[in-house]
């Protein structure tokens, strides 16, 4: 014990295997434990970084997919607008055609009435001509 005390005052100690050490056995044990805790912490940090990296990658993929769907939706909306404009233009063309055909029908009706009147006048003239003879 006296030799250990003399060595202890000089900063030298014996460990559990009776090997001469510069650090006290308790300090050496705490240092080893701290080293293990640090190693575990570094491992957990690396694992956390890996998880965060894969999460960021997943979020990026979702963002790209969302952007793609957004572009598809915009394209579909633009297509619908274009179809609606085409239908509107087609409807206007058909309305103009209907108006044109109505005017043509009215001309034919007037022409028909005029021809009917002429036919009646000619039939009356023929009847009068036949009765005079």
Automatic annotation (TrEMBL):
GO cellular component, one term: ciliary basal body
Residue stretches in coiled coil: 80-111
Localization in the cell: Cell projection, Cilium
InterPro entries registered for this protein in UniProt: FT20
GO biological process, one term: protein localization to cilium
Keywords recorded for this protein, A-Z: Cell projection, Coiled coil
Protein name (record): IFT20 protein
């Amino acid at each position: 014990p006296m030799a250990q005390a003399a060595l202890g005052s000089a900063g030298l100690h014996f460990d559990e295997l009776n090997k001469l050490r510069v650090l006290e056995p308790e300090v050496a044990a705490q240092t080893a434990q701290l080293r293990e805790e640090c190693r575990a912490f570094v491992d957990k940090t690396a694992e956390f970084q890996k998880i965060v990296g894969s999460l960021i990658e997943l979020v990026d993929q979702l963002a790209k997919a969302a952007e793609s769907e957004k572009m598809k939706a915009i394209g579909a909306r633009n297509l619908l607008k274009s179809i609606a404009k085409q239908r509107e233009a087609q409807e206007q063309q058909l309305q103009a055609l209907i108006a044109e055909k109505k005017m043509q029908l009215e001309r034919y009706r007037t022409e028909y009435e005029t021809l009917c009147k002429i036919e009646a006048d000619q039939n009356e003239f023929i009847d009068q001509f036949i009765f005079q003879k």
